[in-house]
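Summary for the steering committee. The consortium agreed at its last meeting that each partner would contribute one worked example illustrating the joint modelling workflow. Our contribution is presented below. We chose a case with several input lines so that the handling of multiple components could be demonstrated. No manual editing was applied between input and output; the record is shown as generated.
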Amino acid sequence: MNVDLSAAVAQTALLLLLAPLLSGLIKNWKAKLQNRRGARIWQPYFDLVKYLRKDMVISEHASWIFSVTPGVIFLTALSAGLMVPLVTANAPLGLFGGAIAVVGVLALGRFFMALGGLDPATTFGGMGSSREMTIAALAEPAMMLAIFTVATMAGSTNLGQIVLAGQEPGWKFLDAPHALAFAAMFIVLLAETGRIPVDNPATHLELTMIHEAMVLEYSGRNLAFAEWGAAIKQLVLMALLTNLFFPLGLAPVVTPAALGAGLAFFAAKLLILAGAVVLVEFTNAKLRLFRVPDLLSAAFILATLALVSTFLFR
Amino acid sequence: MNLLPSLRSILEELTQRFGTQLQHAPAPQPDELYLHAPPELAGALCSTFYKKYHGRLAAVFAEDARAAEHAFFVYYLYALDAAHGFVLVRVPIPADKPEMNSVTDAVPAANWQEREIQDLFGIKLFGHPNPRRCVLHDDWPEVYPLRKDFDLHTKLPPFTGVRHKFREVEGEGVFQVPVGPVHAGIIEPGHFLFSVAGEPVLYLQLRMFYAHKGVEKLFENLPIPHCVRLAESISGDSSFAHAIAFCHAVERAAGIEAPARARALRTLCLELERLYNHVGDIGAICTDVGFVTAHMHAMRLKERVLRVNEELTGNRLLRGMACLGGVRFDFDADQLRALVTFVDDFEKEFNDLVELIRCNSGTRERLETTGVLTPQIARDLGIVGIAGRASGFDHDLRREFPHDFYDQVRFTVPFFTEGDVQRRMVVRREELFQSFGIIRQVVGKLPAGPIQTKIGEVPPDCVALGFVEGWRGEIFHWIHTAPGNRLARCKVKDPSLQNWPALSEAIMGNIVPDFPVVNKSFNLSYSGTDR
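What follows is the complete predicted structure of the assembly.
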């Protein structure tokens, strides 16, 4: 294992700083489309600072699990982020297990988040946890299969290798396996980041919440880390989607010019993907909870077809 | 005696059947029939009106008449839609033995109102399926606030009584989800206890009356002209309808009528109230299924109506507009022209909104077959207003008992039998289109003349019923006047009180995350229920 320390520091900083901006941007765009002025795109930073300075209220019934959960959410999202190539073709923790490790680490975060929702034994936390698990049971396999599709095409589950394979001439971005896997991953992205039509990140109705219900009991520093972690997770998943399927412009070597270009390409791709997410949220109503598995099954089937087609089109 | 012919024939039939037990008390209004009956006849009369004349038990209330008549009186108000008349049956309850037989078994619509009488007057109920505390919660001491010997300014010592015991629902995997009484968002207090097996709701128990303010007691302690402002604050979203219902009652008791122009202006304001509430509700239903885009447009439209309200009456919620004998402000020609232009423009934009919602299959999928209230249950519970009209219960006071200017305008009453959230939204949508027409017609034939009839001191010991079809449903104010321009009793019946139990029925078999939208499709007032 070989960890490049300066790259790790740089990528950590990028994840920490970019994630709230991306959330703020999506919120702002949504507001604009809905005829509202919306909060400025920097608002999530101010929110985080505000949360960090506030006192925490913790239920007397909560155990240690409740308190460690925000840390686990935050750290798992961050470490998953270090395994995904963002600007350079090689991720700082690239040799650490690749795609499977990313999915596994994110699953660990989710496991703790569900526990954290259950732990204080409040009404809504438990409901959120149970719904989250129902959705995860379908979203995770779909994500795995979609990533395996790309991995099979590239001949490696190492994300850096996949990206490098993608940058070789003759690589097709829009062939059947890639298109199907991308569609599956996009649905998974909507589910994993709690967006309409799966969950509504802007609702105040506890009875309909999924992600928000699990973090409902958190306040102060705990809430800051839970929210920040969720934002980072969103960035990581979006980076996975953009860089795995469209590895255009990722810096193959570490030179200032290549890094600058890589950053610009990364930002542009994120903006396009964020725009797509906003459009979906803008034009759709939330699905009835029992119809969400249908949507995720569709993602799973798409991903399966993608994997099968890699062998057909070889 | 100038009783309506339809009521007169009913009176004759009843006299034949019940003989001298039933006494007819003359009332000045042709559409109100007052009958005095002995307590043992209450049940029989109830089923007669309910089954034979297809009446609705619109209200049950009591009055403390121990000073004058040594008895409490319990009134049963039946609305006979086909006969276009109201029947009020008055039953005496002896002061020394305050007990009454419940009619809830026969007419479930009476459930909460009978319990209210038990709580507030101390008249013990017999034969009620669930005779527990209702208005005054379980921890209250034994006091009966609406009795005359209970002073308004009574300070009760701090009390810590028993907590309410909810019914237990048991079974494998069944658990209870308590929601409220304090909610997220700016709404009022109400406690919902869901018994769920996973996501499907098995049973929903409601506990209201957290915001009981003793409004009916307050009415008895204010001079009548001041009561209009009190009526306005019974339920914020129906300020104008409540105020007008109260004014109707007083005007009927005083034997006067508001001038034609005032009645037309009242109609305009009632329709404006309907406009802003309906468009707001349509948006709120959309946001509860996550279609925020439509909600934002609806909120913009609602805001436009509120501004027009302010432009016309000086208040966004039309407060201060109603007064006894008419309205307080006239609209000049410019204002009326602006109103019609606004309605034309609003209709265009509202059409766009309707199209936006109609073309969103996801929204439709969420709304159809969700929260079904069957016509049978709606009929049993006496569900009124939009919720009733979406569940096959076709009645509208504007059509059956045209008040104000409604006899001068043409409109239809939309009506469906499916009873789901979608239909409750469509009823609102269609009523809005009717409202545009009503406003145009009223402005078109607005009579000239004064906007107020002088009303002097209201004669004592008169009874009168005031009613208005508000945007949510029918509102009744029944008054009994006292000497000195005061009220001996004012019963306020908000449609919410009647409709809350429907929520428990409509949610049955649905899943927990659909509750907010089912609740929103009824959009009932807590304050109007609790009073």
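Chain B touches chain A at residues 177-179, 184-185, 198-199, 286, 288-293, 296-297, 300, 360, 362-363, 365-366, 370, 511-516 (CB under 8 Å). DSSP finds 18 helices and 15 strands in chain B.
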